[in-house]
């Protein structure tokens, strides 16, 4: 046997990659931070072997919607503990920072973190700092010049804007502020993420105003004015908006994922474009926990892994412009961002309304960023609830 050809080999897992269509039991070899080979019998020439027998080897997971601005925002979850150490290698913060708080977000969250972090900049300069006080109740906090300048100065991080369409966030100025947000997106050439579920505006009235590429967060919300009609079918307007390029993000969150909405919608074939957790400081100890727990819930709702995979890898990576950096896929020669998941048996999991479902729970067993293995943390559902 010669010198070790590889730094690490992840041995014997089922390697799944949506971009290439790869789905086979194989070894995945890492050398100098890159995927060096995918094939048989690679472990013999490895310095370090990680056994993945019975597990699934995926591109590193991309979290399309979360809140990570700990210590500054009351909704900020710890970026490493709740994400990287639960198998996530890249994440988009959904409006926790606004233009005035962005410099702190960049310094405290983006720069010191191993994960690749981008964001949807809150249209309010304040950002979502304290959920008790709506960030747009003073509409002057929606400062277009500041938002445009922050986006222009930080193109590596700002990938869109976020507006929370809730009456407790923006009072009764729903339509003018939504239209102002869309105009801002148009001027900046960036998408707008719209959080729905807590205004008198119907979903079709919101969808009418969105452009291709804009994205609805919380598509399975159980609150009023969601995606279902009075007969429990998905509104025609929801499909029509999708046909012209409007996106849907599941964004579980503390109060925005209802199995009662998700079940019939999924049964008729309505899946989110992006499967995200909307993890925050208010839910990372339950009922959301993390992205893999949200994936487990979709498995329990009857969505096969082949449909879950693109929604946590290729689609969010492309949407966030991270595909060009090698996120969301496993390519020989590309960066070794890898997540290994194992099913650990049935667990009863709650939605945001307290309904439960028995799910084959997924658990990360290894995560690599640029070929470097990071320590994992135990599922918080095993801990006494906080
Ligand atoms: Zn959110």
UniProtKB/TrEMBL annotation:
Signal peptide: none annotated. The record marks 164 as: Transition state stabilizer. InterPro entries: Deacetylase_Atu3266-like, Metal-dep_hydrolase_composite, Metal_Hydrolase. The keyword Nucleotidyltransferase does not apply. SUPFAM superfamilies: Composite domain of metallo-dependent hydrolases, Metallo-dependent hydrolases. The modification N6-carboxylysine is found at residue 162. Zn(2+) 1 binds at residues 65, 67, 162, 278. Zn(2+) 2 binds at residues 162, 195, 218. Keywords: Hydrolase, Metal-binding, Zinc. GO terms for molecular function: deacetylase activity; hydrolase activity, acting on carbon-nitrogen (but not peptide) bonds; metal ion binding. This is Putative amidohydrolase. It comes from Cryptosporangium arvum DSM 44712.
């Amino acid at each position: 046997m010669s010198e070790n050809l590889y730094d690490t080999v992840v041995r014997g897992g089922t390697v799944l990659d949506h971009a290439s269509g790869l789905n086979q039991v194989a070894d995945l070899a890492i050398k100098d931070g890159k995927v060096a080979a995918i094939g048989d019998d690679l472990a013999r020439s490895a310095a370090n072997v990680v056994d993945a027998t019975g597990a699934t080897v995926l591109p590193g997971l991309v979290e399309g919607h979360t809140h990570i601005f700990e210590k500054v925002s009351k909704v900020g979850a710890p970026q490493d503990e709740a994400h990287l150490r639960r198998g996530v290698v890249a994440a988009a913060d959904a409006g926790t920072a606004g233009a005035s708080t962005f410099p702190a977000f960049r310094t405290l969250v983006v720069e010191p973190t191993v994960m690749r972090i981008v964001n949807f900049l809150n249209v309010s300069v304040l950002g979502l700092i304290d959920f008790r006080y709506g960030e747009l109740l003073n509409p002057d906090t929606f400062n277009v010049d500041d938002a445009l300048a922050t986006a222009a100065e930080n193109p590596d991080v700002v990938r869109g804007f976020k507006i929370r369409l809730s009456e407790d966030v923006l009072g009764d100025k729903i339509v003018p502020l939504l239209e102002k947000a869309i105009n801002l997106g148009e001027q900046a050439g960036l998408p707008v993420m719209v959080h729905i579920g807590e205004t008198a505006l119907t979903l079709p009235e919101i969808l009418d105003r969105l452009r291709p590429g804009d994205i609805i967060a919380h598509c399975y919300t159980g609150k009023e004015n969601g995606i279902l009609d009075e007969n429990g079918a998905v509104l025609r307007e929801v499909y029509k908006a999708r046909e012209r390029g409007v996106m849907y993000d599941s964004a579980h969150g503390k109060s925005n994922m209802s199995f009662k909405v998700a079940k019939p919608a999924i049964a008729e074939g309505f899946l989110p474009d992006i499967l995200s957790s909307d993890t925050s400081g208010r839910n990372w100890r339950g009922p959301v926990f993390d992205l893999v727990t949200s994936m487990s819930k979709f498995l329990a709702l009857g969505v096969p892994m082949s449909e879950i995979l693109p929604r946590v890898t290729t689609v969010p990576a492309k949407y966030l412009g991270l595909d060009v950096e090698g996120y969301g896929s496993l390519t020989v020669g590309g960066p070794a961002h890898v997540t290994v998941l194992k099913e650990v048996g049935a667990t009863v999991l709650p939605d945001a309304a307290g309904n439960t479902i028995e799910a084959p729970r997924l658990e990360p067993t290894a995560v690599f960023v640029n070929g470097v293995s990071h320590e994992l943390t135990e599922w918080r559902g095993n801990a006494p609830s906080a």
